[in-house]
Amino acid sequence: VVSSNSSPPKTPDTSLFVPVSLKTDVPADGTVGAELTQPLDKNELLKVLNKFYKRKEMQKLAADQGLDARLFHQAFISFRKYVLEMTSLPADLHIILSDICCNAGHIDDIYPYFMRHTKQIFPMLDCMDDLRKISDLRVPANWYPEARAIQRKVVFHAGPTNSGKTYHAIQRYLAAKSGVYCGPLKLLAHEIFEKSNSAGVPCDLVTGEERTFVDPEGRAAGHVACTIEMCSVNTPYEVAVIDEIQMIRDPSRGWAWTRALLGLCAEEIHVCGEAAAVDFIRELMYTTGEEVEVHTYQRLTPFSVLDHAVESLDNLRPGDCIVCFSKIDIYSLSRQIEARGLECAVIYGSLPPGTKLSQAKKFNDPGDSCKILVATDAIGMGLNLSIKRIIFNSLVKPNVNEKGEKQMETISTSQALQIAGRAGRFSSIFKEGEVTTMHRDDLPVLKEILSHSVDPIETAGLHPTAEQIEMFAYQLPDATLSNLVDIFVSLSQVDGLYFVCNIDDFKFLADMIQHIPLNLRSRYVFCTAPINKKQPFVCTSFLKFARQFSRDEPLTFDWVCRHIGWPLAAPRNIKDLVHLEAVHDVLDLYLWLSYRFMDMFPDTAMIREIQRELDDIIQQGVQNITRLIRATNPNMTDPLQPQSNLSERTGAEADSSAPQRTTRGQRSLAGMMEKSLASRLVRDGLLTPDLLKQLQREWSKSQRQEGGSQSALTADLNNKSIKRERKKKK
Fold first, then answer.
1. Which of 540, 547, 622, 548 is nearest to 583 (CA)?
2. Fewer CB within a 10 Å sphere, N or C end of the chain?
3. Which residue in 348, 678, 21, 523 sits closest to 359, CA to CA?
4. DSSP annotation of 360
5. Mean pLDDT per 10-residue segment, the chain (730 residues)
6. How far is C-alpha 209 from the geometric centre of its chain's CA atoms?
7. For 503, what's the count of Cα atoms within 13 Å in the CB-facing half-sphere?
């Protein structure tokens, strides 16, 4: 493997260099400097130091040592403070400064002492070459010598959803003497685990939170199904399957696919995914000297884009799945559907796997009265669903870009195809699928999105390893973990095939536990925990876990039960349901940490037992979700309902004793709600029903004020007119 090391070193982002605080101890030579010369005049010293700072020659010399204008200024401020505030300076520095103040030395003589101080507060300056070598990510294939020592056969199974590509790869996996399946989701790993054991091929399960060995004595089976982050790059296999290879470009998780592809020690590597990844995988494998054999598959059942939108929930049919990109929409739509006497299943990302499976089973069961599914794009992979028609409620989704910034974006062709492809599955009762939108205006946009070819994949993700961060910490022992990672990324060099994955979640956790005394390896492991940072209860639990761990006190079952308030009651409203989902995440976090620190998280079996009970409680809540929504907000109205339904409902729900007169402002707002802007804002998650009500109140208030001032003006004009008439009569 050849490296292009000729490229110039990357200029570091010096804003990340945090100065180290120096101890203000009396120097070893005490007051020798003052005894040999004389005490220093602070006013004279200040003038001398400021002259030194202004000399261009000194700034240029410092720049050659890696100090840009920012670092030079920071270092000078620190050096000046040190010189002026220390009761006793080192003898050599004291003598030099005394000579300059007495005109017996040159200002430039300060430079070596200034640099000595600078390298003490910015230790990275002295080891910049070493830091650059550690953070050089240009040849990641060389990180896996065991994989490079064997000649691997790479087979790419390319095709759209429901084309049988993964099926063919799994058949080869089942026929092998040993194998590993690497998938993006726990649900997919579970599915292969069950499928393999059902086929008489003993298979273990390894996810971040779970290890299941089929052998009663705990011996490893020849086959293992795992989530991709958990695959071993040291264990030899005959066959490895890497599913959803297009996720190699994912801004947060792409590194796991890169690691599996470059590092798995398997005679055959079978990758499954979109055809848009074929050329890139070929190019990537060229750097390892491995050829790629491509098998192309076509979709087994067709799906067609309809020429009309659904427009009203009255037009829903059995086998429909409405896809939303926000939980608010899911709550709103599920309530409206059930108000029409229809039952619906609900699936979204933060539900526990057991609840997702039970909702999928309910929807798939031909004997169940539930015929409608409301879901997020969580259905895009990992669940087998009998869907006849996919209905996009919106085409705009909140996204996190490579810089970690959240933004609303129209879904990509790849995302649209992944979701649309769930309609009319080969194994379902619906042999042909249909795709449309809820809103008329969205249908031409969807057709446009689906008419494009998927953007080819051009880069693969990388992430600094624990070993690389440890080497960095050895060079910079006083830096925080968050700062270490920042400096690592700023210095890291990647070639054109790679990018460094977003590390914001890692830094968020690192900053949260920075004040807790942990060794670096433990701190790094805690910060790689997969937690939902939007959930305050999960974050506070993470903090408590780290604090308890740092005290060397095991986190027992009783301790966890006290923390989460176990046993927990069934949810009475949506807020309760969201909290129960957060508690489920906290138990997941415990299990995840238990496999990394077994002695400190000892009660996995009991935690898993209460997690199963909690899953059942959440399932009950989701089955009664419309009742929970009503309990949360009994007056919740939906601005997305068609105009006729809105007016009918307003009439039916109005209190007969209440006055039926409405103000001009309220009528105007009702009209606004029925137009596309308000409905789109709510639909896309940019405006909540509560905010909409607040707008309605403010609108009404402004209209009343406007009406009041208008009445006053009219009265004033009338008075003036009457007075004029009286004058004329006189």
1. 540
2. C
3. 348
4. H
5. 52 74 59 61 89 90 86 89 85 87 88 90 85 91 94 95 92 97 94 95 95 92 97 96 96 96 97 96 95 94 92 94 92 91 91 90 91 92 88 88 71 92 76 92 95 94 91 90 92 92 93 95 95 93 97 97 96 93 97 96 96 95 83 56 37 34 36 47 56 66 55 50 51
6. 18
7. 21
CB 183 within 8 A of CB 192: yes
Give the span between the Cα atoms of 92 and 386, in whole angstroms: 82
CA angle 365, 368, 374 (to 5 degrees): 80
Nearest to 166 by CA among 151, 178, 183, 143: 183
Virtual CA dihedral for 667, 670, 675, 677, nearest 10 degrees?
Answer: 110
Neighbours of 31 (CB within 10 A): 15
**DSSP letter for each residue of 563-590:** HHTSS-PPPSSHHHHHHHHHHHHHHHHH
d(CA 573, CA 627): 8
Give the 3-state secondary structure of residue 400. Answer: strand
| Residues 628 and 644 sit within 8 Å (Cβ to Cβ) | no
Please state, in angstroms and as integers, the Cα–Cα distance from residue 725 to each residue in 407, 718, 721, following that order: 65, 11, 6
Tokens of 12: 């570091």
Neighbours of 408 (CB within 10 A): 13
Helix axes 676-683, 327-339, angle to 10 degrees: 110
Which residues lie below 8 Å from residue 540, measured CB to CB, with a gap of 6+?
A: none
Q: Which residues, listed in sequence order, are joined to residue 269 by a DSSP beta bridge?
A: 154, 240
Other beta carbons within 10 angstroms of residue 141's beta carbon come to: 20
Helices (H), ranges, 340-384: 353-364
372 half-sphere exposure, CB direction, 13 A CA radius? 21
Each residue's pLDDT tens digit, 40-79: 888 888 999 999 999 899 889 988 888 888 888 888 988 9
Indicate the pairing of strand 203-206 with strand 211-212: antiparallel
Reading the block at residue 283, the tokens are: 């190019």
CA atoms of 167 and 164, how far apart (whole Å): 5
Q: CA gyration radius for the chain?
A: 33
If one counts every other C-beta atom within 10 angstroms of the C-beta of residue 321, the result is 24
Q: What is the 8-class DSSP label of residue 326?
A: S
435, 420 contact by CB (below 8 A): yes
Burial 244-257 (b: 16+ CB within 10 A, else e): bbbbbbbbbbbbbb
Cα separations (Å) of 6 from 2, 289, 495? Answer: 11, 22, 12
Residues 6+ positions from 662 with CB-CB distance below 8 Å: 670
Task: Retrieve residue 654's tokens.
Answer: 């109005």
Look up residue 31 and give its amino acid: T
Tokens representing 126? 């002295």
User: For the whole model, what pTM was predicted?
Assistant: 0.79
First and final C-alpha spacing in the chain: 111
Degrees, nearest 5: CA angle 343-344-349: 160
**Residue 377 and residue 411: Cα distance in Å, rounded?**
11
d(CA 677, CA 666): 17
Q: Give the full edge-to-edge strand order of the sheet including 292-296.
A: 211-212, 203-206, 223-227, 179-183, 236-242, 265-273, 153-158, 292-296
> Strand, helix or coil at 196?
helix
Going by C-beta distance under 8 Å and a sequence separation of 6 or more, which residues neighbour residue 151?
290
